[in-house]
Amino acid sequence: MKDFNTFPRRVISHGPTPLESMPRLSQELGCNLFVKRDDCTGLGGGGNKTRKLEYLLAAASDAGADTLVTIGGLQSNHARQTAAAAAKFGFACELVLEDVEGTPKQDYYNNGNILLDKLFGANIHYLEDQQDCLEFADQLMISLAEAGKKPYLIPVGGSNEIGSLGYVRCANEVLEQIRGQDIRLDQIVLASGSAGTQAGLLAGLIAAGADIPVLGIAVSRDTQAQQTLVQSLLEKTLEHMELDPELAKGRVVADGSYYGQGYGITTPETIEAVTLCAQSEGILLDPVYTGKGMAGLIDKCRKGIFSAGKNILFLHTGGSQGLFAYREVF
Questions:
Q1: Fewer CB within 10 Å, N- or C-terminus of the chain?
Q2: 269, 212: one domain
Q3: What CATH number does the domain containing 316 carry?
């Protein structure tokens, strides 16, 4: 295995982020619940993408880039944190953002993450729901290069083998914290979208020889599609770390039962999960990722799939800024 500290990194995040108990929610659901507060990473309102951007910005700097280009939905948390990182380190920022059919529209175009993207000085390219974002981004890269810029394309969600290193680092943090707090975890649960967070976390646990199960609650795909996406990225991340990709076998578990009609479209269970966490723990989730992830955790506790007394860690990947774009559904 390659020495992890040799991978180029730009330090951005506040860390280690807290690992806290959730006593009132635990009492409500009958399991011992903990939360890893990666909503507190610090950059531009915080969230999981900050950890990924530490490695992606280092790669962009090494490539001599002066402009960051990335892709996402109109209320993308990743786009917001990329825009903040660009501002912090002096890059120009181009965001290719796609409208999402079925989302509430009263505040969607001007509030939440969009408001912050503009405040951070990003240039936003608005695409209709069915436009091809990747094709548009490729053409934008060509146009920027022809104009004398040096653009660097960051993938959707910062999710490639470089960005995933941020969650290898997070896995090490979690292991150190549970040792220090004398917690034996039975399960880690997180919202799983573009796959980099789940793949990186698993890669970190594998590298450390830890066998804690990780369940990804899919926010936009069925179970098989999400597991395939995470599996592929996990294998690439292990190879990037000079570990055997065969170590990924049997480690990827996802559940596509909770995403409803699609990405960014809320469900009644999502609304309940956001409200319950706010009113029992003072913790703000978001309607796109963590709300759906927590809805899955709540359902599994209530059904006894997570049996009483189990120690479960929820990885809070941030995104509460998006609540302001979804005001009408609350």
A1: N
A2: yes
A3: 3.40.50.1100
Q: How far apart are CA 219 and CA 287, in angstroms?
A: 10
Separation in Å, CA 138 to CA 55, 68, 217, 268: 22, 13, 30, 37
Asked if residue 268 has a cis previous peptide bond (ω within 30° of 0), the answer is no
Task: Give the type of residue at 317.
Answer: T
Task: Indicate the DSSP class of residue 327.
Answer: G
Does 314 lie in the same domain as 211? yes
Residue pLDDT tens, the chain, 330 long: 899 999 999 999 998 999 999 999 999 999 999 999 999 999 999 999 999 999 999 999 999 999 999 999 999 999 999 999 999 999 999 999 999 999 999 999 999 999 999 999 999 999 987 789 999 999 999 999 999 999 999 999 999 999 999 999 999 999 999 999 999 999 999 999 999 999 999 999 999 999 999 999 999 999 999 999 999 999 999 999 999 999 999 999 999 999 999 999 999 999 999 999 999 999 999 999 999 999 999 999 999 999 999 999 999 999 999 999 999 999
Catalytic residue chosen out of the listed positions 76, 164, 192, 194: 76
Q: Are 68 and 38 a contacting pair, CB within 8 Å?
A: no
Residues 130 and 67 in one domain: yes
Q: Tell me if 214 sits within 8 A of 251, measured CB to CB.
A: yes
Q: Look-up: residue for tokens 């997070």? A: 170
Count of alpha carbons within 13 angstroms of residue 16, beta-carbon side: 16
Q: Residue 221 has which token pair?
A: 């795909």
The contacts of residue 208 (CB under 8 Å, 6+ apart) are 171, 172, 175
Sign for the CA dihedral angle at 281, 287, 290, 291 comes to positive
Tokens of 214: 């990780």
Task: Judge if 150 and 203 occupy the same domain.
Answer: no
Residue 194 falls in the annotated catalytic set: no
Domain count, the chain: 2
**The domain boundary residue, chosen from 157, 185, 209:** 157
15 and 95 in one domain?
no
Which residue in this structure is represented by tokens 């069925």? 222
